[in-house]
Amino acid sequence: MSKKYNFYAGPAILPHEVMKKAQDELLDYKGIGLSIMEISHRSKDFDEVMVAAETKIRALLGVPENYSVLFLQGGATTQFGMIPMNLLKDGKADYVNTGAWAKKAIKEAKLFGTVNIAGSSEDSNFSYIPKNLNLSSDAAYLHVISNETIGGIQWQNFPDTGSVPLIADMSSDIFSRELDISKFGLIYAGAQKNMGPAGVTLVIIRNDLVENSADNLTSMLSYKVQVEKKSVLNTPPCFAIYIVKLVMEWLEQNGGISAIEATNKEKAKLLYEAIDNYPMYKGTANVEDRSKMNVTFRLTSEELASKFIKEATATGLIGLKGHRSVGGCRASIYNAMPVTGVKELVKFMEKFEQENG
């Protein structure tokens, strides 16, 4: 099979080493004679997987002891409702509207209380991160999307919310850069960008928020119950959690978060320099808010963009079509995308410019 580079936004590229390890253990996990997909989620072998995954996540992110780590289901989209259901309790929350995913979160929150739009970049088609926020001192929390995959914008510095808990959807940039977890009340992320396959959602929540969350909720959607049951109220997505553990091991073996952050900066620099230097391409996000995970750009015409995507695909550069709601092009360069993949894309961009400019 010829080498292909996967630039899809999600489900996205996984490290080759992780895929190979999973392949090697698929039929016989650590000599037990069974696959990880067919053993009990309450068995000793799978419990060790869960514990190892959580331990490695805590170590890599520096998660303080007063936070709980959950492996839940339903994707980040379920968290759009679960967060206000548990934490809003007919009160008021601040939300920053930075794009399609923020709008979905805002819609769900309005079902459970009052939403104050503390900032929005809708006036410029979500091409920037709002800087001057109208924060409420009595808000239950402030919610942000740390990285908008569609618009290609990313919070470079998170707002100081004082005593108001900061909540962030980090589905598309978790584990990509160093963070101070203690600045957040809750972070959550679907796995299918930087952690593993679709099917499991990581939630890291400060324990006081759990203790003060709403009572009398259906068990699957209650943080209190999920923390009490240690993410095994029902059968968890076992194989997805196993892959998350392998990805965490891969991160450890490759120098941890600081090392992957340096690599991510290198990849983004290479690609944005190509976009800025070749007249045929134009970035869609404000320079200071550009995402290091999802690089969005346009060509001088949609016809050229279609040709670019078709020819790139033929050369093994897969998934460069922009989101259907905005068009254009998008290169998702998550942790597992090697520098060589970005260099191949830049080489193709230069060649395409020369042949079509």
Tell me about this structure.
The structure is a single chain. It is built from 10 helices and 14 strands. By secondary structure, it is α/β, with parallel strands linked by helices. The protein folds into 2 domains: 16-253, Aspartate Aminotransferase, domain 2 (3-Layer(aba) Sandwich); 255-356, Aspartate Aminotransferase, domain 1 (Alpha-Beta Complex). Strands 2-10-9-8-5-3-4 form a 7-stranded mixed sheet. A 3-stranded antiparallel sheet has the order 11-12-14. Strands 1-13 form a two-stranded parallel ribbon. Helix 3 runs parallel beside helix 4 (100-109) and helix 8 (256-277) packs parallel to helix 10 (339-356). It is globular. The protein starts with a strand and ends with a helix. The model has no long low-confidence stretch (mean pLDDT 97).
What is the overall shape?
globular
Low-pLDDT regions: none
Indicate the mean pLDDT.
97
Structural class: alpha/beta
Please estimate the helix content: 25-40%
Q: What can be said about the biggest beta sheet? A: 7 strands, mixed
Topology:
Layout: E1 5-6, H1 16-25, H2 44-61, E2 67-72, H3 75-87, E3 92-97, H4 100-109, E4 114-120, E5 142-145, E6 147-148, E7 153-154, E8 166-169, E9 186-190, E10 201-206, H5 207-211, H6 223-228, H7 238-253, H8 256-277, E11 281-283, E12 294-299, H9 302-314, E13 317-318, E14 329-332, H10 339-356
